[in-house]
Each structure stands twice: as C-alpha cells, then as structure tokens.
Amino acid sequence: MNTLIDKNIGTVEFSSPKTLWLYFILIPILWIDYSKIDLKLSLITFGITCLTVCLGHSIGLHRGVIHKTYNTSRTFKNILIYLFVLSGLGSPLNWIKLHYYRDYWQNRQDCPKYFAYKHTIIQDYWWNLHLQFTAKDIERYTIPKEDLNDKWILWLHKTWYLHNIFFMIIVYILSDLNSLLVIMFLRIGITILGHWYIGFATHKYGYSRFEIEHANESAYNDVILGLISFGEGFHNNHHAHPKSAKFSLKWYEIDLGWYLILLLKRLKLIHNVQEAGVANTKKQQAKKNNRFKWSFPWNQ
Ligand SMILES: [Zn+2]
Ligand SMILES: [Zn+2]
Questions:
Q1: Three-state helix/strand/coil letters over 37-85
Q2: How many Å lie between the centroid of ligand 2 and the Cα of residue 196?
Q3: In whole angstroms, how far apart are CA 87 and each of 50, 133, 242?
Q4: Residue 203 Cα to ligand 2 middle (Å)
Q5: Which letter does DSSP use for residue 250 in this model?
Q6: What are the tens digits of pLDDT across the range 243-261?
Q7: Where are the strands (E) in 126-273, listed by range?
Q8: Domain layout of the chain by residue ranges
C-alpha cells in the first residue's frame, strides 16, 4: 500500500473500524423480507435519507462546514452536523479532513495515486471503503482551526457510531426487526455505497465544461447522478465553483439540495448564501471549455 502514497505525504493503511462498520451494516441487509416493505416504511426511510444525506451531509457538512458557502447560527450548524452523523457515513471530523486532503492533491499535478482517479472501480472500492489515509503534515492543508477544535465535532468524532446504534435500538423498540433492517441498515448501506460510487463516477465519467489548470482532476457532471445525489453529482461545477452553495449551472442540472437551501434561506435559518453566477464563487484556475468534454466508461 506504500505505492499509493509517498511516505513524506502520509500513510495509507487498512482500517479495521471502517471495514467493520461497513460489513456490520451490509451483511444484515441479506435478512430483509422485501415483501413486508409497505408505503409507510418506504416513505419513512426516504424521509430520513433526505434529512441525513441532503440536509446533514450535502448542505450541512459539505456546503456548510467544509466550503462555508453560507452563514448560519451555531445551533442550526450543530443540528446539521448531527444529521450528518445519522447518515452513518462516519466521523464528521474524518470527512472534513479527507475533503481538504483530496481537494489539495487533486488540484495539483503531483497528485498521489491514492487521491487521483486513474484506477478501476474494484480498486476504488477497496481503497476508499477499507483503507485510511493519515496525513504526515496536517498544517499544509490549512484546515480552519475552528473546525479542527470544534467541541461538538470532536465529541461526535468519538461517538458517531453510538448515536447510530442508539437509533437502531429505538427503531427496534418502536417497530420490528424488518423495519429496523430497512430504516437503519438498508438506508445506511445505500448511503455509504451511493456516496462512494458517486465520488468515483463523477471523477471518471460524464461531461465537463471547466478545466482546472494545473490540476490532476477536474471531475465531471452527470445529470442522473446529480439528481439522485441531491446535487453532489455536478462535480465538475463544484470543482470550478467551490464557494457556491448551488452545484447546478444549467436548467437541465437539477440540484435538489439547492432548493432546500432556498427554503432554509426563506425560513431565515441560513443567510449570506453564495451562488455561482451571482457571487464570485469560481476558482481562479478554472477555465471554461469551448465545448463539453465527455468521458465514457468505454473510452477509458
Ligand atoms: Zn467539496
Ligand atoms: Zn472531487
């Protein structure tokens, strides 16, 4: 695994907690009785997915804490981070750090193998879902101290899985085993695998209208993945406009997260929302292509 990264940058090692959590979630899914899934159970599961993935992950952690594309109160920010924890994706602190590491390296030519997307989906499944990168020199990534030392984030970093187990017990008490498997295991399983797959696919396939100069990765957009991932699949737009709370740039790019952001703004829960095309959200090295650049699996 040392070939994946230079030892002066950090280490990539097998992570037992990460792997254990993944299969602790995935294996019980095999026992689900799909004939017992009714409309009510489907709607509850979908509703919790929207709250945790769209509100918690995409709007709260990604567009809020990491990219700071809007302002909000301490309380609302903490609620969003808590919703992220219930997505089952893992520690918010680990995801914040990983995002800074990836951004830093993907925007450079000397991007290590581990962060570049020159590998296959099988390799990516192993690297991303079972291995853990530890940075040697965390200072170089300029992660804001206010986030690294945030008491709420640090507490959730230590306890994130306990909150999920607590909710598993609650769901079991309030309903039955099959509902527990659907609401907590199937939902979290789809979230983890969906999040991983969208990260992989949007760095490999799709269309891009921006080329990030001197960068190893400019990423791609995908209209279908963008729609089902609450906007996260418009990844070329996001690489070019990291300061924008809105990931879509054209009418055919439907960013559901953005509509929720507009609602939160209207409810006065967030303010000072940065929007591509309105505010100056574009990265300096992002150059617009004259034509769309396409990348398909068959011409890799
Ligand atoms: Zn990002
Ligand atoms: Zn990216």
A1: CCHHHHHHHHHHHHHHHHHHHHHHHHHHHHCCCCEECHHHHHHHHHHHH
A2: 12
A3: 9, 21, 23
A4: 6
A5: S
A6: 999 999 999 999 999 999 9
A7: 131-135, 206-212, 270-271
A8: 2-299
Q: In whole angstroms, what is the distance from residue 70 CA to residue 273 CA?
A: 4
Rounded to the nearest 5 degrees, what angle is found at the Cα of 279, between the Cα atoms of 275 and 284?
105
SS3 content of the chain, % helix, strand, coil (to 5): 60, 10, 30
Q: Maximum distance among all alpha carbons in the chain?
A: 58
Q: Cα(200) to centroid of ligand 1, in Å?
A: 14
Tens of pLDDT, residues 54-78: 999 999 999 999 999 999 999 999 9
Q: Is residue 153 packed enough to be buried (19+ CB in 10 Å), middle (13-18) or exposed (0-12)?
A: buried
Which token pair is 141?
């990534």
Residue given tokens 């300061």 in the structure block: 243
Record the tokens describing residue 27, joined without a space.
């294996």
Q: Supply the pTM of this predicted model.
A: 0.95
